[in-house]
From TrEMBL:
GO terms for molecular function: oxidoreductase activity. PANTHER family: FAD DEPENDENT OXIDOREDUCTASE DOMAIN-CONTAINING PROTEIN, SARCOSINE DEHYDROGENASE-RELATED. This is FAD-binding oxidoreductase. Signal peptide: none annotated. The lineage of its organism: Bacteria, Pseudomonadati, Pseudomonadota, Alphaproteobacteria, Hyphomicrobiales. Keywords: Oxidoreductase. The keyword Oxidoreductase applies. The keyword Oxidoreductase applies. It comes from Mesorhizobium zhangyense. GO terms for cellular component: cytoplasm. Residues 33-380 form the FAD dependent oxidoreductase domain.
Amino acid sequence: MNSWPRDPVSPLWQRLSAERFSAPKLEGVRDADVVVIGGGIAGLTTALELRRRGRKVVVLEAATIGAGASGRANGQVIAALTRHGPDAIRKTLGQPFLDLLAGAADRPFGLIEKHGIECDARRTGWLQPAHSPGRELRARKMAEQWAVVGALAGPLNKDAMAARIGSQAYFGGWEHRGGGHINPYAFTLGLARAAAGEGVAVYERSPALALSREGGVWSITTPNGRVRAPRVALATAAHTGNLWPGLAQTIVPVTSYQAATAPLGRLAETVLPGDEAFSDTRQDLRYMRKDRDGRIVSGGALALQFAAGTRLPRLIHRRLIAFRPDLAAATMTDFWGGRIAMTVDRLPRLHRTPDGLATWIGCNGRGLALACAMAEVLADAVCDVPDEQLALRPTPLKPVPYHPFVSRTARLILPYLRWQDSREI
């Protein structure tokens, strides 16, 4: 097993990307209608939506496009939240947000088609296998709820799930035929290319160092320049700093690692033979999809992060063997990681101020479809749409209690979650 260096982006997704994009640093002073801080999927889709509405938009990316969580994800397109089904979502966040989420998978695939983004898009469906009989009952209810709201969802019994994933390791589950998977790095680059082509001014290596209000206009300073605008959309997710005091304390940033096998050859035809993606029902989530060359791409978290480049691929390899013993011959060849923004209740949040600053935060590992769907909501929020007309109602900042301690120790709960998973019936 190898130990890999830390790459600025996913090495696998970068190798497989046909998309290319580069942008200059911000130099000097610029004026705009809206400044979007963060050049990931959330920021770029919001910029495209604002540009569609005729706004003059500047995007500031601290590093390079695709270097953050957007370009390091597993790439699964999932129009569902991690814990909450439709009934719970309707009760906690309201029917408008449920309607938005139900069609969330349409957003990335629609953008891919509209802008000709080359990102190995496969709308082949998403599966949630149940790791215990009790979870199978819950999965069946989840499928029924999603079907009621119009999703292409349905339950799968044990034999049907085994045929779909190529393994007898699960007890059934459910499917969402509107989901799928993409190369997320290529998708992010394609969004940046599309935004620039629509007239959005995109700047790389231009971190926002300070945010201040001067004479009714926001002023955002970077190492080499400044942007002035009456409206600001913050799309920094787990990389949120202190630009908006208190915002970073509302989420727990978690490192999610990914690992990929070498191409499996003919064996790949029997693993996920329909080329779906899947994420199971465990609290310590197990998930996988294939890439275009027949690699398995999977991932997970670690309670202790030392030697992650060695330990995580070994963990994934053991899980692949548990999934299918003949995957023992698979060789792990790529490793990378990225930070995701988690909320305590696993629900997203929308925040805004009366003077034109807005953000949404809390992807909770389901950010790809959700970020694309939330672009319209964030654009509405910075364009002064009244609270009652927003698909996700704004809420005040609510810091996580004991945030400095929790943010450093949250991953230590993993052994307990794995123990709970092992005891579920």
